[in-house]
Amino acid sequence: MAQLMENEVFMAFATYAAIVTLKMMLMGPITSYFRITRGSFSNEEDVARKSDEEKKKLLKSHPDVERAQRCHRNDLENIVPFFFIGLLYALTGPELSTALLHFRTFTACRLFHTIAYIGALPQPSRGLSYLVGVLVTTSMAYRVLSTVLLL
Known about the structure:
151 residues; Four Helix Bundle (Hemerythrin (Met), subunit A)
């Protein structure tokens, strides 16, 4: 473990992995905020103490809530693979500058993707940020496979 703490690439990975993980965790409170402020709940137990008439009004979908939920699911589909591939990539001994380019680009893409999703920015803003993030993870996966391929 002490050797990893001296490895600049691993430390860079840990930094950016923590940033995107915190961003992903923030999506829960953002979704809750939209649920409360938009009066949009999806579960009976969330409105259990309300009258039947209030329940009918509150048990509905809202575009802002739906966007926040889809953004969170998209994070799970992209940040989790980045975490595993990025860790393996860091262990292959890449140049620090190249690793930083990968980690920073992915992190910037995920942050912009969230802004584009929550802010309902027009396409292709969200699509491009998603695509670039996937390409970064694919590039790291290629490095891992080309370095350690033992089939």
